[in-house]
Design goal:
The protein is mainly alpha-helical. The protein contains ten helices and 18 strands.
């Protein structure tokens, strides 16, 4: 029994050791070769057989014709570089042809930047070349052997394969242990792993990626099917109208959690071209761009027809672009690694990360404090040396007397206030204009004689926490007495200032709604009255609102449970009767509506839009305005069919109009068929000689 328990313990230890070494191989200085030694074979013959199989696949000697050779790696990298460059050229061409985001569009604002720094751009281009090479190498190895994609990638993770003809150099960071402060770029902040967290480094992963192909393709479900539409999933989980029994509080918490996750994704450094940001949707989201016009970094998100929010704005597509990737520190082949946001930092930034258990900032959702280096100035003698900071006092106005807040101040420190702004009071010359010390101007002399300011006590429980030290109070309006006699002031009743049609409604102190908005009075006006039909005396008679309607109005009342109009506060739709006309024979009878065609200009040929038109109907367009072209008499003034005027005959001789192609990806969606182009200004030559045109330099 003891021997069986001992073998079981050895098996358990061997399983844990194998999994630990395979998943955290970065913690060992050795590679897979150590695992292929006698360590695992002594513990468990099963793992000896498994590791021996992987060893034979990839780590065979040159005489055994290994699957991955130097020539195969070089060929894969050459092809990958060509494919990546072609994709880059195609992306730039698309932007130049108009497939790009507008400067101030909402989608453009989601880009962290539309122009990547040169170093980030260079690293991104090299990363794309390495990813293409990895994909090609995977396809070649898996198609010519029984190796699976997962086995291939597991080998790459533990046995780095680096192309030789590559400009990338493995990262080597040397640190000085005597450095007192952390570095700006994050290097050497961890002396055990000096390259971790530095500027431009790939993100650290706590688990393996789930790319569909193991390299860069977007992930799919375990069944192999596509994952649910992210917008549909978001609308389902964070529904505007929760299902019966659902918690609105938890739904709000989930929404806030989603905001954090979304912004972490959106504010990553997204891919862009040399020409600008990448567009994946038509216009402002009307539809997904055709495949021929899509950038390979685009993952547009389709919006459903019944989307509760976007459908009312006509949005059918959300612009989503993949984040920037970076080459690995050792320049090896493998799956995509996203770039660290620190590579986008200004060299003056020293961001301060907030600890998970910070008692103040974490409750406000703050994860990073913005810290910028102070301004420096050259030395007085212009000599070389360490940085010299500019004194903030030299930048102060001579009227400023800033008050520093103590570290243990019980109030201001919790609001992050370290300095109180204090400015010297206004001074005035003496009445006799004599010299002497400063004389301050009394603030009371600057007060209107109707002001009675109320000073707030130091220990006031409400106003002091908002920094209020004075309440503005103005004397009420006075009026002369009815008999115009002299005496004390007589205040005007506010009711005497009311229109006699006003019936103001006072709001109670404990009103659950209006008090939180500071409303103490509701404006209510009496309805309109009218004299009786027989002009007799009596009580007031209100005017029916229907009597105020034009007899051509047929207002349509909106039901209380209307799914659309009620959410916009619409209770009535304006409907007006169509125009009528007398009959041709002027006989009596029912109303005859006027045909809208009879109101058309004889030059109009309106084009009716079909009910199922894919574009115009979503914009509420039912008719396109089309006008006949201009005609002119024939040169010989003879009779005959109409002759249209050539538009070129109406052109200025300086015009060179540019016709827009039918399939133009940008201008056609805006209805532009011609671009206005005018020839540049010319000037005579300096010697006034004849010759070709000379343009004037602007």
């Amino acid at each position: 029994m003891d021997g069986k328990r001992s073998r079981r313990n050895i098996l358990s230890i061997s399983v844990l050791l194998y999994l630990f070494c395979a998943s955290v191989s970065a913690c060992f200085s050795c590679g897979w070769e150590t695992l292929f030694e006698d360590l695992l074979s002594d513990l468990c013959p099963l793992f000896s057989t498994t590791t021996q199989t992987i060893n034979e696949l990839f780590l065979s000697s040159e005489e055994d014709d290994p699957l991955i050779t130097k020539n195969l790696v070089a060929e894969s990298f050459r092809c990958g570089r060509e494919l990546a460059r072609e994709a880059r050229q195609r992306a730039n061409k698309l932007v130049r042809n108009g497939v790009s985001l507008e400067a101030c569009s909402p989608t453009m604002l989601h880009f962290f930047t539309s122009k990547l720094p040169s170093e980030v751009k260079k690293a991104s281009e090299l990363s794309n070349e390495l990813l293409s090479a990895t994909k090609i190498l995977q396809m070649k190895v898996c198609s010519n052997s029984d190796v699976t994609p997962n086995t291939f990638l597991a080998f790459l993770e533990n046995n780095p394969v680096r192309p030789h003809d590559i400009s990338c150099k493995p990262v080597s960071v040397s640190c000085l242990g005597s450095n007192k402060y952390r570095s700006f770029d994050g290097a050497c902040n961890n002396l055990q792993r000096p390259a971790w967290g530095r500027r431009g480094a790939p993100f650290t992963r706590i688990t393996s990626p789930r790319y569909a192909d193991g390299i860069y393709a977007m992930p799919v479900g375990r069944s192999g099917r596509a994952l649910p539409n992210p917008r549909a999933l978001s609308s389902r989980v964070f529904a505007e109208q929760p299902r019966a029994g659902a918690s609105r509080v938890l739904t709000a918490l989930n929404m806030q959690w989603g905001q954090i996750v979304t912004h972490d994704m959106v504010f990553h450094v997204m891919e862009s071209t040399d020409e600008g940001a990448i567009q994946c949707c038509l216009g402002e989201g009307q539809d997904v761009l055709p495949q021929s016009m899509l950038n390979d970094k685009c993952i547009p998100i389709c919006v459903a027809e019944d989307d509760p929010f976007y459908r009312q704005h006509g949005v059918r597509c959300l612009n989503f672009v993949r984040s920037v990737t970076a080459p690995r520190d050792d320049c090896s082949l493998g799956h995509a690694e996203q770039v660290s946001w620190q590579s986008m930092l200004n060299d003056k930034c020293i961001p301060i990360c907030v600890a998970e258990d910070d008692p103040f900032y974490r409750q406000h959702g703050v994860r990073c404090l913005n810290f910028v280096r102070s301004v420096t100035a050259p030395r007085d003698d212009c000599s070389l040396g360490h940085a010299e900071q500019v004194s903030w006092q030299s930048m102060l106005n001579d009227k400023c007397i800033p008050i520093c807040v103590a570290e243990d101040d019980p109030f201001y420190r919790q609001h992050g206030v370290r300095c109180l702004n204090f400015v010297r009071s206004v001074t005035a010359p003496r009445d006799d204009c004599s010299l002497g010390h400063a004389e301050q101007v009394s603030w009371q002399s600057m007060l209107n004689d109707k002001c009675i300011p109320i000073c707030v006590a130091e220990d006031d429980p409400f106003y002091r926490q908002h920094g209020v030290r004075c309440l503005n109070f103005v004397r009420s309006v006075t009026a002369p007495r009815d008999d115009c006699s002299l005496g004390h002031a007589e205040q005007v009743s506010w009711q005497s200032m009311l229109n006699d049609k006003c019936i103001p409604i006072c709001v109670a102190e404990d009103d659950p709604f209006y008090r939180q908005h500071g409303v103490r009075c509701l404006n209510f006006v009496r309805s309109v009255t009218a004299p009786r039909d027989d002009c007799s005396l009596g009580h007031a008679e209100q005017v029916s609102w229907q009597s105020m309607l034009n007899d051509k109005c047929i207002p349509i009342c909106v039901a209380e449970d209307d799914p659309f109009y009620r959410q916009h506060g619409v209770r009535c739709l304006n409907f007006v009767r169509s125009v009528t006309a007398p009959r041709d024979d002027c006989s009596l009878g029912h109303a005859e509506q006027v045909s809208w065609q009879s109101m058309l200009n004889d030059k109009c040929i309106p084009i009716c839009v079909a009910e199922d038109d894919p574009f115009y109907r979503q914009h509420g367009v039912r008719c396109l305005n089309f006008v006949r072209s201009v005609t002119a008499p024939r040169d010989d003034c003879s009779l005959g069919h109409a002759e249209q005027v050539s538009w070129q005959s109406m052109l200025n001789d300086k015009c060179i109009p540019i016709c827009v192609a039918e399939d133009d990806p940008f201008y056609r969606q805006h209805g532009v068929r011609c671009l206005n182009f005018v020839r540049s200004v010319t000037a005579p030559r300096d010697d006034c000689s004849l010759g070709h045109a000379e343009q004037v330099s602007w």
